[in-house]
User: Which sequence fits this backbone?
């Protein structure tokens, strides 16, 4: 057992519909347990309650699916990427799909602090035409500010949603649902939430699914 | 819109939707069309509680191992989910295949706690299944139950077709074979008579209960030839191999860890303890089998904790070697080991020390009563000295918190006995202060004693509520200050548990009325409404005090006397008399008190040889 981790692996994975209702904490536990079943040489934290050293880029809200979620895993001994991927894939529950694994330098800053923005696609059930949807999106983008309230346990905090919306567009039709794309800020200064954007659009009740397509990082 | 589509729309809006989504690692999905008997295993509490029950995991594994049978799981939907389901007309469904419960052949409930009864009715209702057994023909699922409460399930007799009494590992397969052969292919009545001929199956509708004018049961008589007058519980002579591929929950459940049962039954013979009486005789799992199971469990689940389950872990013959071996074998994988029930002695502290090298959170012991005298009454054979020495060993080796379990309202208890709890706790705190200074903590849990069926105290009343409240106040006054944390059981909860656990089948109406007026999740403080139950009693014209607050004579036909646990009522009564004289009884390991279990199951010797002894025999 060495104290210094020997390898840092970056995992890109999908969180699909089967597991979209599990919380971020549940998801962390699910990965820990899958990694333990895969019997890979995990590096653990020091202290009274040693935990495997996993670092997720950004928590995905309950109910969302994710197409390119990201997670760093620290290993105590080096492993081949192919071996690691094969062993882990065999231990993942339905709905968690490991896309790829890459080694990244140990010295890189931690993943969570590197996220700048996230791109989402929201499915909406609507009678409206493409033009009507586009007009609605343009109307929102034209606003100078979008004051909203965020419920926190025991308090309500006012904030401005508008500057958190970097881009907002109509993607097209997916069967009978309209897909709306958006790129929202996600850094320590503020995190835009797609359900808040949909509420500001007056479409909260029409949402039928939300997927996070990708995360954007510091260059 | 189909109900499945509306389910998908409402799940994001309820609390903890993952409770209802299934898809966990190791869940078993079988081909529905190829299964000859489809069983829904139902637990009448939330997912997090039900998923922590080892019995459910054992039966899930056992049924799904059989190619012809299929078992899926269902738990009680929490209040918000129930409301959403009713609004959207979503029937109660199984987690694995999301099928409505009424499409199953058999629905088997696990009954572990009386305060889940209203949830049983609610789950049947949410499934669209008629509540009363007599309103269901053979075209409905067969509704059955097992578990601790099945040892007196009379209050639920109207709702269930049959109960499995005792250990399910052999009797359930026998019942499933019968179902495969004839459930739904003959009249329900005929099926039930055949089921009643299986040892360990109790069919309540095949018994006529008569009452004396004062309300006590006068007779419980079988209605048909071939139906036994008494149903004897079933036991397995050796513990079957434990499940090693259990479902791994996503949600953080109450006992979120791998479990292996190392021993069933207990030799101590504490007179208040229902588990100690009904799970006789003691049976151990061989050390090698435990080690193998732990290995498999950890590899198959990825759990970071393994729990060695039994009623008294320190009594397992090979507990020392087992714990030492496990802690060495899995140290590198940071697997922690938990022993849920430790005897109050220095050996237990030693064990705890082996398994908790890093994190010394707390140690729990159960002296149960404050005074030496009262501990003799309940046959809890430990002395104040034992406890203090154990506390010393624990604080001295680095534990900061000791949790102590006591009971209040025990037979013959006086205020002196209650004051003795305070003295003991103060003494323990003193020891803690000596070793750990002001960081030392004692947490004290004082539960009100509920006399349970099939124990030496089954004839006794529940302690008077105001008297207990007064004694709790005394305790609060006597245990002031830093370093002591005190908690006790809720008065109304205790009352309802006492009434339902000791009730007869007339209580079926009470359960029904309470459910109808909105009783749900009575075990949960945020949902429990005792008033609904009080009104239900009034509506049914029954006096709860008749069930909870009355000393019953030995001659009384107890509502649960149609169930034979193998321990004879004469033995129980003698134990009761010995308790009044303050006479101890022997631990089964030290000598036989002739409780009846040996004759009932033709055991020679009794208790059956321990795993270690068997292995030694084999080597000779």
Assistant:
């Amino acid at each position: 057992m060495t104290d210094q981790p020997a390898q840092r692996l970056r995992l890109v994975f999908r969180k699909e519909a089967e597991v979209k209702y599990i919380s971020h904490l549940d998801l962390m536990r699910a990965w820990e347990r899958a990694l333990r079943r895969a019997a890979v040489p995990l590096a653990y934290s020091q202290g009274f309650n040693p935990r495997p050293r996993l670092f997720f880029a950004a928590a995905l809200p309950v109910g969302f699916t994710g197409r390119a979620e990201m997670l760093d895993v620290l290993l105590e001994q080096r492993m081949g990427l192919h071996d690691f991927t094969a062993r882990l894939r065999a231990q993942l529950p339905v709905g968690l799909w490991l896309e790829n694994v890459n080694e990244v330098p140990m010295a890189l800053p931690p993943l969570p602090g590197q996220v700048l923005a996230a791109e989402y696609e929201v499915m909406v059930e609507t009678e409206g035409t493409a033009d009507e949807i586009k007009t609605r999106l343009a109307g929102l983008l034209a606003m100078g500010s979008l004051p909203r309230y965020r419920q926190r346990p025991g308090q309500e905090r006012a904030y401005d949603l508008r500057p958190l919306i970097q881009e907002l567009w109509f993607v097209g039709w997916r069967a009978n649902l309209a897909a709306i794309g958006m790129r929202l800020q996600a850094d320590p200064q503020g995190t835009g939430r797609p359900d808040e954007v949909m509420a500001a659009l007056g479409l909260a009740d029409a949402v039928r699914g939300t997927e996070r397509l990708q995360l954007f990082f510091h260059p | 819109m189909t109900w499945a589509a509306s389910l998908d729309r409402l799940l994001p809006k309820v609390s903890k939707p993952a409770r209802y989504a299934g898809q966990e690692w190791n869940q078993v999905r079988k081909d529905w069309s190829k299964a000859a008997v489809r069983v829904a295993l139902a637990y009448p509490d939330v997912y997090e509680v039900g998923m922590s029950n080892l019995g459910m995991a054992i039966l899930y594994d056992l049924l799904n191992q059989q190619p012809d049978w299929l078992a899926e799981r269902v738990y009680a939907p929490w209040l918000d989910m129930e409301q959403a389901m009713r609004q959207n007309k979503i029937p109660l469904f199984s987690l694995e295949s999301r099928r409505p419960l009424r499409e199953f052949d058999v629905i088997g409930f696990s009954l572990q706690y009386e305060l889940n009864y209203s949830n049983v009715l609610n789950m049947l209702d949410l499934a669209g299944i008629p509540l009363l057994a007599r309103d269901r023909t053979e075209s409905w699922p067969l509704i059955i139950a097992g578990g601790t409460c099945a040892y007196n399930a009379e209050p639920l007799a109207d709702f269930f077709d049959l109960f499995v009494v005792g250990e399910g590992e052999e009797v359930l397969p026998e019942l499933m074979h019968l179902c495969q052969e004839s459930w739904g292919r003959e009249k329900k009545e005929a099926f039930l008579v055949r089921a009643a001929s299986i040892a360990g199956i109790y069919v309540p509708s095949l018994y006529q209960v008569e009452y004396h004018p004062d309300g006590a049961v006068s007779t419980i008589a079988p209605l048909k030839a071939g139906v036994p007058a008494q149903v004897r519980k079933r036991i397995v002579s050796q513990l079957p191999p434990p499940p090693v591929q259990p479902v791994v929950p996503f949600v953080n459940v109450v006992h979120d860890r791998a479990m292996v049962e190392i021993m069933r039954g207990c030799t101590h013979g504490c007179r208040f303890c229902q588990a100690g009486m009904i799970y006789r005789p003691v049976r151990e799992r061989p050390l090698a089998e435990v080690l193998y199971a732990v290995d498999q469990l950890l590899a198959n689940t990825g759990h970071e904790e393994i729990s060695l389950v039994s009623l008294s872990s320190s009594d397992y013959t090979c507990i020392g070697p087992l714990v030492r071996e496990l802690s060495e074998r899995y140290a590198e994988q940071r697997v922690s080991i938990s022993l849920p029930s430790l005897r109050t002695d220095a050996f237990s502290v030693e064990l705890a020390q082996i398994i908790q090298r890093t994190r010394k959170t707390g140690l729990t012991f159960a002296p149960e009563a404050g005074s030496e005298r009262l501990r003799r009454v309940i046959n809890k054979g430990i002395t104040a000295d034992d406890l203090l020495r154990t506390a010393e060993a624990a604080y001295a080796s680095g534990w900061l918190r000791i949790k102590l379990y006591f009971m209040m309202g025990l037979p013959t208890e006086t205020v002196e006995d209650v004051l003795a709890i305070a003295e003991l706790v103060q003494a323990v705190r003193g020891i803690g202060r000596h070793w750990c200074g002001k960081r030392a903590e004692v947490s004290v849990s004082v539960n009100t004693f509920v006399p349970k069926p099939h124990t030496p105290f089954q004839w006794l009343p529940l302690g008077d509520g105001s008297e207990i409240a007064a004694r709790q106040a005394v305790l609060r006054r006597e245990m002031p200050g830093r370093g002591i944390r005190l908690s006790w059981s809720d008065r109304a909860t205790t009352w309802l548990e006492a009434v339902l656990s000791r009730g007869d089948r007339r209580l079926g109406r009470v359960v029904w009325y309470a459910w109808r007026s909105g009783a749900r999740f009575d075990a949960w403080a945020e949902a429990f409404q005792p008033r609904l139950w009080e009104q239900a009693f009034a509506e049914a014209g029954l006096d709860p005090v008749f069930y909870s607050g009355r000393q019953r004579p030995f001659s009384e036909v107890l509502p649960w006397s149609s169930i034979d646990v193998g321990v004879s009522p004469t033995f129980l009564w003698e134990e009761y008399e010995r308790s009044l004289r303050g006479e101890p009884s022997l631990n089964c390991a030290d000598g036989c008190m002739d409780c009846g279990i040996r004759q009932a199951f033709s055991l020679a010797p009794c208790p059956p040889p321990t795993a270690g002894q068997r292995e030694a025999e084999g080597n000779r």
The interface with chain A takes residues 9, 11-12, 16-18, 20-21, 23-25, 248, 250-252, 298-304, 332-334, 358-359 of chain B (CB under 8 Å). The longest strand of chain B covers residues 401-408. The two ends of chain B are 70 Å apart (CA to CA).
